[in-house]
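Researcher: I'd like a candidate sequence for this fold, 69 residues long. If you have to choose between options at a position, lean toward the conservative one.
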């Protein structure tokens, strides 16, 4: 798998400290969700991000691969 950009949506607004747990991802807060966007190098890294979401007790709404800016 080549590096690709992903957009990950979680329910609610993430605090700055929770957003910091996702390293190089940028976060934008929408009314009822937080949208994080960043590059994922491989499947292992993607699984790590998803595991981090679960371990923090966040509700995952959507994960999708997006075109690079």
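Model: Candidate sequence:
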């Amino acid at each position: 798998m080549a590096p690709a950009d992903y957009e990950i949506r979680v329910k609610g607004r993430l605090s700055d400290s929770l957003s910091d747990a996702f390293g190089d991802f940028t976060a934008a807060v929408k009314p009822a969700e937080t949208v994080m966007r960043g590059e994922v190098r491989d499947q292992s890294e993607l699984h790590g991000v998803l595991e981090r979401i679960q371990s923090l007790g966040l509700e995952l709404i959507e994960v999708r691969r997006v075109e690079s800016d």
